[in-house]
Amino acid sequence: MAFLEISGLRKRFGSLEVLKGIDLTLDKGGFLVLIGPSGCGKSTLLSTIAGLETISAGEIRIEGQRINDLHPSKRDIAMVFQSYALYPNMTVAENMAFGMEMRGVAKPEREKAVAEVAKTLQLEHLLKRRPSQLSGGQRQRVAMGRALVREPRVFLFDEPLSNLDAKLRVDMRVEIKRLHQRTGATIVYVTHDQIEAMTLATRIAVLKDGELQQVGTPYEVYNTPANLFVADFMGSPSMNLLEGRVSRSNGAASVVIERAGTVPIAFPAPTSANVEKLSEGARVIFGIRPEAVSDPESVNAKSKSVTTFTSDVEIVEPAGSDTFVVTSIAGKEVTARMRADSDIRVGQSQVFALNLDKAVLFDPATTHRI
Amino acid sequence: MTAADLVVAPPPRPRSGQSVITRVVIYGLLFFFAVIYLVPLIVMVMTSLKPLDEVTGGNMFALPKSATFAPWTRAWGEAAIGVSDTAGISGYFMNSIKMVVPAVLISTLLGALNGYVLTKWRFPGHKLVFGMMLFACFIPFQSVIIPMAVILGLLGQIGNQLIDATGFSFGFGNPTVNLVICHVVYGLGFTTLFFRNYYEAFPTELVKAAMIDGAGFFQIFRRVLLPNSMPIIIVTVIYQFTNIWNDFLFGSTFAAGDQSPMTVALNNLVNTSTGVVEYNVNMAAAIIAAAPTLFVYVVAGRYFVRGLMAGAVKG
């Protein structure tokens, strides 16, 4: 039995259904990231776990206990809000102790718990200040401290880093990761930033229009996306998606991508695909991550299946650590990740190598992975 | 001319002559209107400090030759108010205080509670309820007098029955209590409007955080909402205090004789038709009557402007 279980969860606002039957589980100590574009229902899902929104159907259980109808304060959860939601009239210490005070914890005990958490989060020198006297990062830490101090069963984070500047966001991301590793807390985390999702999660749930698209480890979601939406949404730059067709000969299937005015690219079907399903002439969408497209010299030596093609370079984007090179195949842009020191110029003809170990195929009709 | 001269030479002020004229005009107008507004107050203060013969025989704008506080003490403790036996306005001043303080506190608190419910605990039909409360702001005093009289009459009967039964009226039928009820009911529309608009911009996440922290309905209100509502509380208190203190209609209708508030007593003092009209005493009484609202404005006025602006723009 999983620690947190959500089954058949539906949420309707009038006639509008924002969550359409969500089934999710999370083990104790797990870090579940809910990710999706704006309006996909991820924040609503978090609110239903918190009890701030009622649910229309389904069930939420923590440690087997049904919490559907429990008041938020009775669910033994803590939440970190996007705006931090610190009480402006209270000091940092009072903010952190408020939850315990409402639960009737004695003052010495409260002070002890606050002091401990303040030490962990390096907030000791700020305890007497008010939220208005803190910087964004400090407020963020206080908000986390307020959640930590109660030692709840489940932590809920609602886009906690989206109000911070880029540098601080990376620092706080590391801090959250460290906190999770050290405390072994069970966390549900909402974000729209796929780098946060990849780096923090032990499990990622991708949502779109109130439906789960895929649930899995960051590795699974990134390397074997369940459908075109997940493939396109996760990863930056996003996955290259090209239209092709299947050609069969002697029982082996290969993928052919036609190119106007030049030779088509043909290569054996990626090993990740279920070859039995591929019939002669079937249309497929071929997906490959930018890091699996490179110049022939820097192809991963361990890769078993590589194919090359030649194309004109259209855009070169130096990103410091890498250089992204954009070309086009059959009218579709293809991004390749090259070494930062590669000497590639716009307009030149370049040989690109595709590492097919990392490629996937999708059915254009159902958008599912084959 | 050397290069150094060019560097240090200040840039010419564009059209400086015109800006001087503009300033003279602006300050001249401001001064003019300040004088216009201050003249009545100055005349009142000067008249109140003059003996009566100086008032009747002299120039209104002349400084008092032999300044005396006698008119003030007379107004406060000795002057005859209408046909009442009580001397001076001190008793009526206290009547007003006894009416204003509870009325302001109750209407402000209820307004805050209404605003809290109408924004953070919305229920089906909350817009209709708020709309009707807004409507209350547009109802003139005069049109509620008769219904109010009927209700207060009923309360008075309850009070009489309570006296028969227990020997104590529990405040039913007491003129001061009646006036408090009138002003609370009448003021509720305004206070609700003020607080609803303030709480509309109040971050709901704070309420949610407090809910998760285990705070109940009233705990959230008392510990999270109210401590962060100082600007709007001050606006509401000033507004209600001024309105209720200055009210004449309810005071003259629902309280009589010794129970009248200050405004009614001032009218009775000034409109007395017997004996000599003591202008100096009248002026002193009028200043005393206006003093509390002046005091409230001076003490809390700077919050008033701030509070009216708060919530208008974010941040």
Relevant terms:
heterodimer, A: 370 residues, alpha+beta, Rossmann fold, OB fold (Dihydrolipoamide Acetyltransferase, E2P), 2 domains, 5-stranded antiparallel beta sheet, 8 helices, B: 315 residues, mainly alpha, MetI-like fold
Summarize the helix and strand pattern of chain A as letters.
Answer: EEEHEEEHHHEHEHEEHHEEEEEEEEEEE
**Whole-number average pLDDT of chain A?**
89
CA distance, first residue to last residue of chain A = 31 Å
Number of strands of chain A: 21
Structural class of chain A: alpha+beta
Major β-sheet of chain A, in short?
A: 6 strands, mixed
Give the rounded overall mean pLDDT of chain B: 86
Give a short account of the largest sheet of chain B: none
- How large is the radius of gyration of chain B? 27 Å
Percent of residues in beta strands of chain B: under 5%
The assigned structural class of chain B equals: mainly alpha
User: Any idea of the CATH topology of chain B?
Assistant: MetI-like fold
| Overall CATH architecture of the largest domain in chain A | 3-Layer(aba) Sandwich
Identify the biggest protein-protein contact and residues per side. A-B, 21 and 16 residues
Summarize the SSE layout with pairings:
The complex is a heterodimer of chains A (370) and B (315).
Chain A: E1 4-13, E2 16-26, E3 31-35, H1 42-50, E4 57-62, E5 65-66, E6 77-80, H2 92-102, H3 107-120, H4 136-148, E7 154-158, H5 166-183, E8 186-191, H6 194-200, E9 203-208, E10 211-216, H7 218-223, H8 228-233, E11 240-249, E12 252-257, E13 265-268, E14 283-288, E15 293-294, E16 306-312, E17 315-318, E18 322-329, E19 332-339, E20 349-355, E21 360-362
Parallel strand pairs in A: 3-8, 3-9, 6-7, 7-8
Antiparallel strand pairs in A: 1-2, 1-4, 4-5, 9-10, 11-12, 11-14, 12-13, 14-21, 15-20, 16-20, 17-18, 18-19
Helix pairs in contact in A: 2-3, 2-4
Chain B: H1 3-8, H2 16-48, H3 52-57, H4 70-77, H5 90-120, H6 126-136, H7 141-166, H8 175-200, H9 204-212, H10 217-225, H11 230-246, H12 249-254, H13 262-270, H14 279-309
